[in-house]
Design goal:
The chain is 40% helix and 20% strand. It is of the alpha+beta class and 198 residues long.
Length: 198
């Protein structure tokens, strides 16, 4: 985030849905006596929600026991892991590639190699579009391959290679629901291909 110690005013033009967004946004106002203005959300309601979150966070009776924390950490270490399939961990550095971070990794790499910004959907993906119905209009997009630039020219990862990597593993079951609730079938399809490319 941006850290501007002299920031005295924050203007929130867009509506936001979470208390976390309120806390993070109002936290940008660093100067003493700074003000936050809302154009969409009710400021009194957002402040009340933030106070409630703070009181819950400080309530010792709601804290997890040490055993519960250890158990959750163990579950986190194994959740979404299929040996040899997901995630990929570099043996030398320990850096990890997962379905969650593979798209930003590929897009940043491509932008650096190409030396310019680009539209990933137009440049990287070969997509077949089928008409499901004419009215109301509905189309189905299916990725045939993903490509990326390399010193040896464009490299292509096709559907056969992607299917061979994933086998019977359903990528929808590898990520925690709270991290994927806003992802569409198209998002999962892209991640399935891009992960293999990365």
């Amino acid at each position: 985030g941006i850290d501007a110690p002299e920031c005295g005013v924050v203007l929130r033009y867009e509506p936001f849905d979470t208390t976390k967004s309120h806390i993070q946004g109002s936290g940008r106002a660093r100067k003493a006596n700074a003000r936050v203005f809302y154009f969409e959300n009710d400021p009194q309601l957002e402040v009340a929600k933030a106070r409630h979150v703070d009181s819950v966070a400080r309530n010792d009776s709601l804290k997890c026991s040490k055993e519960e924390l250890v158990s959750a950490a163990e579950r986190f270490k194994t959740e979404g892991r299929v040996v040899g399939v997901h995630p990929f961990t570099h043996p030398g550095t320990g850096a990890e590639v997962s379905l969650l971070n593979c798209i930003p990794i590929l897009y940043e790499y491509c932008q650096q190699v190409m030396g310019q910004s680009f539209h990933p959907d137009e440049v990287l993906y070969d997509v077949r579009v089928e008409t499901v119905r004419v009215f109301p209009p509905e189309e189905r997009r299916t990725i045939q391959s993903v490509r990326y630039p390399s010193p040896d020219g464009w490299q292509v990862v096709d559907a056969a290679k992607v299917d061979a990597h994933w086998g019977n593993v359903d990528v929808n079951n590898l990520l925690p629901a709270e991290r994927t609730k806003n992802l569409t079938a198209w998002d999962f399809q892209k991640r399935r291909f891009v992960y293999v490319a990365v």
